[in-house]
Design goal:
By secondary structure, this protein is of the alpha+beta class. It folds into two domains: about 160 residues, Beta-Lactamase (2-Layer Sandwich), CATH 3.30.450; about 70 residues, Arc Repressor Mutant, subunit A (Orthogonal Bundle), CATH 1.10.10. The radius of gyration is 19 Å and the shape is elongated. It starts with 6 loop residues before the first helix and ends in a 5-residue tail after the last helix.
């Protein structure tokens, strides 16, 4: 179905297609999500995930403007996808809307294309499955800003976005950070769950000042400026291998927090 778009929207689409065709750099990909795609879909946050179709193990991941606690809705402690909206998309394999309110103005979207998911932002999502890999994109928006054209534009653009995403991640397989120690790995895993320095210190039986020093070292090694970026970066690198030390197995001391 053809949905007429404004001249500005047409220009955005052509620009996005051009960038997708030549993109090889992760920073360029993030810039595309932060600027052109954010403007096109009027979104507050965006996510990009790739994972294995059989084991659901995470391969690559990044978010734009998402809080670190959002990671808990996407992966578990064993690096497996637990995001129910992503699994719903795999079942339907078409653009779907999550948390559409009853007064939504998207009359073109029938209820079968909308699902209710607690604690998940209002989002429009789509993806691609090829050679055993799921590539999934999600844009969290204010439903009042959605238009019929957004649904169809996502259908049109997703194959090009997924092509660019897979190319960029394949070029980024080599780890670009210094070796992360086993203790730093433990701290990163706890940071993913939204734990504070004090809470991490209590679980690891070290002072929160020691945790703070470890966090600062992690930020330097990953070349990021805050905890949220470090968590996102760790998830991006989780499928590359060689970046992390062995995870601590001192369960008698630490309890089961790493499960």
């Amino acid at each position: 179905m053809y949905v007429p778009c404004s001249q500005n929207t047409d220009n955005l689409i052509f620009g996005i297609l051009d960038r997708c065709k030549s993109m090889v750099d992760i920073d360029d990909l993030k810039s595309l999500f932060k600027k052109e795609l954010r403007e096109l879909f009027k979104c507050r946050m965006a996510s990009c995930i790739t994972c294995d179709t059989v084991s659901w193990s995470l391969k690559n991941y990044f978010t734009i403007n998402a809080p670190s606690r959002r990671m808990q809705l996407i992966v578990d402690g064993k690096n497996r996808i637990v995001c129910p909206t992503m699994r719903c998309w795999v079942e339907h394999q078409r653009p779907i809307i999550i948390n559409v309110p009853k007064n939504s103005r998207n009359n073109a979207l029938d209820p079968g294309k909308a699902i209710a998911q607690p604690r998940v932002e209002n989002s429009i999502t789509h993806g691609d499955i090829e050679e055993g890999v799921i590539t999934y994109v999600s844009f969290s928006c204010n439903p009042d800003n959605w238009r019929d054209e957004h649904f169809y534009l996502l259908s049109y653009l997703t194959p090009y976005l997924c092509m660019a995403i897979k190319r960029v991640f394949s070029e980024s397989k080599e780890c670009s950070v210094k070796k992360i120690t086993s203790r730093e790995t433990d701290i990163i895993l706890l940071m993913r769950t939204g734990k504070s320095n004090l809470e991490i210190g209590e679980l690891l039986h070290i002072s929160h000042w020691t945790v703070k020093n470890h966090v600062q070292n992690i930020l330097k090694k990953m070349n990021v400026s805050n905890r949220t970026q470090a968590v996102a970066r760790s998830l991006e690198l989780s499928g590359t291998g060689g970046c992390y030390g062995e995870r601590s197995e001192r369960k008698s001391q630490h309890g089961n927090y790493l499960k």
